[in-house]
Design brief:
Length: 142
């Protein structure tokens, strides 16, 4: 509903989401993908879950010996590095790509919206028309 309201008011939608939580099922990942396709965000900002000290999920990962983080550099927000044990990162890489793939309907809607924004503005049309007329007018030297 929030995405629909933002769209109606011309507010860009930025999808900031995480995949690969230690308790997350494949069905839950597929639900996230389905939601993203429905929302059709303007921008994507995915990440793989990273266990950060001080969080409840970090404690869970420590209790169950799940963390694969061995250096400070691994705390980066990059979705291309395995962070915890027991996650099928190959499948998760597919899910990440699929989460950003637009449905044909969303792609067509996005292209129409871009064309509309580019060409259906009266102020832009007037400016373009003036430029076109100015180019075609003969100069005093000719």
């Amino acid at each position: 509903e929030a995405a629909r309201i933002c769209r109606r008011h011309g507010i860009a939608i930025w999808a900031n989401y995480m995949l690969g939580l230690p308790t997350e099922t494949k069905d839950e990942v597929l639900e996230t993908i389905s939601m993203l396709k429905k929302i059709d965000p303007d921008y994507y900002s995915p990440a793989f879950y990273t266990p950060h000290p001080g969080s409840d999920l970090y404690d869970y990962c420590v209790e169950h010996d799940l963390s694969l983080i061995r250096s400070h550099d691994s705390y980066r927000r990059n979705p291309d590095e395995a962070k915890i044990k027991g996650i099928d990162y190959e499948w998760l890489a597919w899910a990440l790509a699929e989460s950003q793939r637009r449905t044909p309907l969303n792609q067509a809607r996005r292209q129409l919206r871009a064309i509309w924004r580019r060409y259906a503005r009266p102020d832009k049309a007037v400016r373009r028309l003036r430029r076109l007329i100015m180019r075609r007018q003969p100069t005093a030297a000719t």
